[in-house]
Amino acid sequence: MHNHPGKCHIAWGGFLVCSWNLGRGMVALPRTLMLLHGLLNWHPWGRPFLRGLARALPHHRVVLVYTDACTQVWRRDVGGATVFGCGRDWPYLPGREVLSVQARRVQVKWELLRRECGLAAPIDVIGHSLGGLVARLFAEREPGLVRHVVTIATPHHGTPLATQGLQLAGCLGWGQVLRELTPAAMAEFNREHAPQALRLTSGGRVFTLRGRANGTLRYWGTCGEVWYGQRRLLRRYGTASDGLVPDDSALLDGAVHLGDFPYDHRALVRSVQVARRIAEVLRE
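Structure (tokenized):
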């Protein structure tokens, strides 16, 4: 405990968790909500989604962490709500490295954000797609820091589309991380990083959420990848999907499933409805 005139700060596990103004009672600091993007930040967080989270969780600080090498800390207004961030929110630049490198960068950026923005622990983490795997690794490496982990359309068991895209991805410089998303590689990942072994804070849980695409042009994605992926997964592998992640792969043993939504892989992180569903469990 660190004493200051008229105020006490209580430290837990090395992190500031709350403050006490003497004579006024306990004042809780805002809880931190960290968001981790997916592969290449190809499907970035939508403003309606971010605005929905910020408004539904007024006692949380929403923090966007990008897994490129940039360590610049920033803040900006999103529809009247302030969000914090670290890294470049450009498409195709973050999310190119292997999972272990991305998780390490999140650790470094969390420390920067904690110091510069006065963020409090424990924290909640939302990961979209590959970001859900990075979130699992981050929580594993920071025992006792994370309360809840929410994964949106995360390929916990891989996707056959990763196997098909390896040659092209290799030419473009991100073949190694795509190789980690193949079903065989994810089976090994889950053996080495079992979700049951995560040391979350007391009452902490892992949650899953998935979407569904139906092959119409409405579910197009950024450049047709969702439309193509849905048809490929259904016709060749006989599985429904959000266009990129098979239905079963978005689930995880031991996790609480928050539901299925009529949105494709890209649209899930643009939906106010999805943001509000997540906020329901994070408010508890």
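Residues 186 and 192 are 10 Å apart (CA to CA). The radius of gyration is 19 Å.
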